[in-house]
Each structure stands twice: as structure tokens, then as C-alpha cells.
Design goal:
162 residues; mainly beta; six-stranded antiparallel β-sheet; two-stranded antiparallel ribbon; 36% strand; globular
Length: 162
């Protein structure tokens, strides 16, 4: 009798990336513009990242930049969005057919205070994440920026953009 092998793919694919957290109250397009101006990137808007939770769909803004010189992809994604959930009426005698409830959603729930993330896929060996973060911190609209340790991310599947 032969034994069957079962392979679990949860942690099988390890992606090489760096993640930077950004705190700022500015809109996503302003952050992308300021990064393009001060850090010399060329972020452009792409399709939003959508995430389905029960009856709610949250759309997170996504900006992409491909660095030809370093041969790596950059993604600027919003971590916080406000969505609306429609609740059915509690009783048949209600004045309103349905109630709309505003909800706050986060892409990475373990980092609820972070406003934006920059994901750098396949960074070159000589890439200095500290220099990159220091350039970001010099932008007036940004309160702070720092690197996120990948081992603390519980939902890495939310960071798959391509």
C-alpha cells in the first residue's frame, strides 16, 4: 500500500517583497503625486483592490510604478476605506425600507492605524530601504513612514496585486 502525499500551499509560495507603512491624512492621489515629485517615481492609478467580506465589498485605491532601472514593481495601496452596508428593515412597520450603515474597513487589519502601504516586489540587492523611507519622510504631507516586518503580516494574500 502506498502512502499519499498532501501538499498544503498556504505558505508554499514566498514572495520577495518589502513593505513600507505610511501615515498621512491626505488623499491617495495626493500621496502618489508627492511621491512622484519627491522620490522620483511614476505612480499611476490602476484598478482598485476589492475585498469581499460577508455582504460588504471594500475598494482600496491602488497605484502602480515599474522601475526599469532596478527592474522591480512598486505598489501604493490604501489601507483604510469607508464603505456602506445596507441593512434590511428590522420590522415591517419601519418608515424606511432599508438603513445605510457606514463602515471602516482595513486591508491589513493588524495595521489599523496605517493609512497607506508601499509594496516593493523583488527589490534589487543594492536597494536601500532606509534611504527610500528617509526620502518619503521628507514629504510634507506624510507624518511618518517605516518598514513593516513581513512575519507580522497575517493576511499576505491581501497584498497580491499582479
Amino acid at each position: 500500500m502506498s502512502a499519499k502525499k498532501h501538499i498544503l500551499f498556504d505558505d508554499f509560495f514566498e514572495e520577495n517583497f518589502l513593505l513600507v507603512a505610511i501615515h498621512s491624512h491626505a488623499e491617495a492621489y495626493k500621496i502618489a503625486f508627492m511621491l512622484n515629485k519627491h522620490v522620483r517615481t511614476s505612480f499611476y492609478r490602476t484598478d482598485d483592490v476589492d475585498e469581499q467580506r460577508d455582504e460588504i465589498v471594500a475598494y482600496y485605491p491602488l497605484f502602480t510604478y515599474y522601475d526599469i532601472v532596478q527592474n522591480c514593481d512598486y505598489f501604493l495601496v490604501g489601507n483604510k476605506v469607508k464603505t456602506e452596508a445596507i441593512n434590511p428593515p428590522a420590522t415591517t412597520q419601519s418608515l424606511f425600507e432599508e438603513a445605510v450603515q457606514s463602515l471602516d474597513c482595513t486591508l491589513l487589519s493588524e495595521y489599523k492605524k496605517v493609512d497607506y502601504f508601499i509594496k516593493i516586489e523583488d527589490p534589487p540587492e543594492r536597494f536601500s530601504i532606509q534611504e527610500f523611507i528617509e526620502k518619503i519622510k521628507e514629504i510634507p504631507l506624510i507624518n511618518t513612514a517605516y518598514q513593516i516586518d513581513q512575519s507580522h503580516i497575517k493576511s499576505k494574500e491581501n497584498l497580491i496585486f499582479s
